[in-house]
Amino acid sequence: MIKDRIAILDFGSQYTQLIARRIRELGVYSEIFSYKIAPEELLRWGARGVVLSGGPESVFGVGSPVMDSRILDLGLPVLGICYGLHLLVHLRGGRVRPSGRREYGYGEFIQDGESLLFSGLPSQFGVWNSHGDRVEELPAGFRRIGFTKDEPNAAIAWEQERLYGVQFHPEVSHTELGKEIFANFLFRICGVRPTWTLANFVEETLETIRREVGTKKVLMALSGGVDSSVCALLLHRAIGSQLCCVFVDTGLLRKGEKELVERVFSQDLGIRLRVVDAGARFLRRLRGVADPEKKRKIIGRTFISVFREVAREVGNVGFLAQGTLYPDVIESGKVPHPAHVIKSHHNVGGLPQKMGFRLLEPLRNLFKDEVRQLGKELGLPPSLLYRHPFPGPGLAVRCLAPVTPSNLETLRQADAVLLEEMERSGWMERVWQAFAVLLPVRAVGVMGDQRSYGLTVAIRVVQSQDGMTADWVDLPKELLNRIAQRIVAEVPEISRVTYDITSKPPGTIEWQ
Ligand code: XMP
């Protein structure tokens, strides 16, 4: 087990994940826990230090989150950030004052005296604030270690007790020396070492998977996306032929998708893969359905029924594996209590329970970039490693025209032209997603001397950090031109190409 580990107590800040990221970037393992965690649990988990996150609440609010104050008596170093600072002050008998309005933005932070937390940092640096309350009176034992123009107590410490608090957010990149502040907290105050490496993770995880799985078989739905691919590789390394991967051809895949997955997994990596051709079944159930939510439900249900049949055929299946990542776990509101690598409470669509399986989620404590790095180390080829996200319901949510085999083929062709041009021009790796959408709109055109009256395709190319917000990409005119000309020339059913210039918000990335 990795001994040097830091616990983050979550009080609901939008930045809590960033705290975990910053700490892991410094090579120290960290996990996020509910603020409700008991002190004994923290000790059992092996925390060597505790960070209290920010939060949207005021410590004065009715029902605001308050942790067990005995956590402050464990002798562990504590760093309170924003709300975490207020809580620290509040619980230790100091006074926090509501300022009645939230303050956002930059401030110049000035150090006051020496402190380990800011050791080696300049006496003045820029910080990012976002808070409503402020510290009015310090609890006994504490002293101020820094201030800003508006905040007389922007940072406080009780060095002997190793209790620290900052009003600003060191985890956001706008705080200039945030990383150095965390490094001081980790290495100088908590005394941990940077032992979190993927090699350690792999070693530990393989062990856990083998122990948990025993002689049972593990079934896993492989989508060809990064997460499920890396998950499959890890499991394959742990349990070899006890892993059975299933790739369902829903008839809603992109051009060459099935062939790529078969080649990489079956041929190159030697992983046991079952390919189920269920396209006809999916398309039959989708016939005449235009409503996006209905489409998703039908696809989800059909997927489950196909999967169940495969499970029955395979036999002796005890586990269902999923490539759930840490942000999914956090965002689903299921911040774990001291987590094992494998948990069974988080699932999608109730699938495992209905089937009597246990859930295996070996990536559930990793962030996306860590998963990519892991995939690289496990030998996943770049063609899969750096793929754009692709929605589970596939082309069904990109085919606004009736979901028929011929419309899907039209969409597939237009999409393939787009992706080829994006690859060729080097734009593919510079954007978050690029895809075509088939619209149920006919438009008049001229092809040679002939009048055409074909369908319309919309091109969507967006940039994004995490898919939560996105901007449309201003592709060069020549590239757009080439894409449009080739689509109309090479896909006979299409007579018009449009470019989607809606950002998210107010739009979403997908059209359905
Ligand atoms: P939206 O359209 O909500 O999409 O802006 C955000 C990101 O999520 C992907 N997406 C999905 N992924 N199942 C998935 O696995 C879905 O039903 C689904 N819908 C959207 C989308 O491609 C984008 O990256």
TrEMBL record:
Cellular-component GO terms for this entry:
cytosol
Q: Which CDD domains match?
A: GATase1_GMP_Synthase, GMP_synthase_C
Superkingdom field: Bacteria
Asked if the keyword DNA-binding belongs to this entry, the reply reads no
Keyword line: ATP-binding, Glutamine amidotransferase, GMP biosynthesis, Ligase, Nucleotide-binding, Purine biosynthesis
Top enzyme category: ligase
An example of a GO molecular function for this protein is: ATP binding
Query: Can the keyword Repeat be found in this entry's annotation?
Result: no
* Catalytic reaction equation(s): XMP + L-glutamine + ATP + H2O = GMP + L-glutamate + AMP + diphosphate + 2 H(+)
Per its UniProt record, what Gene3D superfamilies does this chain match? 3.30.300.10, 3.40.50.880, HUPs (3.40.50.620)
Enzyme Commission designation: 6.3.5.2
Q: Where is the active site?
A: C82 (nucleophile), H169, E171
Transmembrane intervals: none
Q: Which NCBIfam families match?
A: guaA_Cterm, guaA_Nterm, PRK00074.1
Function per UniProt: Catalyzes the synthesis of GMP from XMP.
Which protein is depicted?
GMP synthase [glutamine-hydrolyzing]
Q: Which organism is it from?
A: Candidatus Methylacidithermus pantelleriae
